[in-house]
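User: Please predict structures.

Assistant: First:
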Amino acid sequence: MIRPSLNRRLVLRLVAGIVLVWCAAGGWLAWRSLHEVDEIFDQMLVRTAASVFAVMPATPAPGVAARLPDRQALDSDATAHRPAITVRDAAGRLLVRSTELPALSFDPGDAHFHSVVYGQRRWRVFQRWDAQRQYWIQVAAPLDERDELMRKLVVPALLALLALLVLVPPTVFAGLRSGLKPLRKLTRSLSAGASPMTVTLTDERVPVELAPFTEAIDQLVDRLKLSLEHERRFTADAAHELRHPLAALRLELDLAGRGGDAATRAGHLQRAQEALDRMQRLVTQLLLLARVEKLAELDDAGRLRLASVAEAALCDVSERAAARSIELSLDHEGNDFVQGSRGLLCIVVQNLLDNALRHVPEHGRVSVRVGGHADRVTLEVDDNGTGFASTDTSRLGERFHRPEGSLGEGSGLGLSIAQAIVDLHHGQLAFGRSALGGARVSLSLPRVATLAPHAPDYV
């Protein structure tokens, strides 16, 4: 398959344009030359008629018509064409005539030009009256001289244009090849680099026309770098975190397979099931985190109430809270409309509630409050657990980081997922001390104005 050539395409289009311009210029030059030559020769006929009138007597003399001598009698140049002159009086009687052209018919009209054919030659004729309308004159000249002058004027000019047209394609090709040299240099720099991800194309040597192209490539490379970095982090985190539950699962299965009583095997199988469940949760969270971090924008974003998201999340965790006698409460002030993805925001609130339930003792309390402040909507999750250590808040949201004193089988990914989703919604997560004595996590999102103060929820 022959690949299209940018250089060949540019040369062909430029040459085609030049040929069109050449044809237009040649046509205009021929038309303009013909017009100028016609004006020059016509003016010569007009001046010849005026000169004849100047030597005519004041009163026409009757008699035999005078014949102008031929060129041989005048010893004139044989190549020159003398105008043929016919003069008549007011009655149409012939006074003067030339030998080259028979006397033309009498047409006592206004002054004008016309053409006649005689002896296989075309003649240009001018006729007019004198000022007293005593003499009527016709002055004729063959068109051969005009054609010859046209050839002498136009042919050399067209030949020069043709020579220029022949020289233009190689000149254009050489110019384009030289002009595309920076593009070939960019190609060589990409090919010679140890890794495409380490090459920066845009610098001060890049031409202005190529700068947007190289900047777009550099931005694409940066996005690829970020994507590859996410993939590497995902692979490394998954390999590191799955190592422990896989080892525990294998150990418990080996111990269960070695025999013993039924109670011992059941205990090993139960711990193997717990390791498998933990591994499943970890893989699910890793996949969710990888999916969220790859999102550049929200495809299913819509206007919704943050309080309704909190209600749905509280319903999901109510059974676990009831099993440990934990009190759940929700307080909202209205005016809490935000723009976002319901599914992702539910994940955020569920993760915040999961962390709170994990660190709250039995018969504890978890409170959720939603309210609007100026142009922000805030969701606060308070508990009466152990709270955050003062040195831990700066690292909250990092992958696999679990604060000191954390309880349960968490993997340290919940807040990382929540932080990634909140960033997609242009929001903020803040951590502090709760009035209940435990931890407080605040989710702040941009508020969406609504005309109805109690508008229904929008999914």
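Second:
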Amino acid sequence: MPLNSDPQKPKDRVRQVSMLATASSIGLSLVIAIFLGTAGGLYIDRHFGTKPWGFIIGLILGVAAGYRNIYILATRLDNQQRKSNDHDGS
């Protein structure tokens, strides 16, 4: 019997790749959010002379946005895992 004869295999692979992509983007989304918040704060400091408050507020907002992104991605990953388990059990 050929290796790819099971029709569920490609769907399982797609599901696994989707879950892996979501999981791998968690760290990246935190770093990008912090970077953008900090860069925005530095930009405000440079153009409005508010040093160091723009940097501090931008950093805090970036960290908050990063953790929000982690929560959203972790919830999405959990939902994907539950769907995968539901499909496997039926």
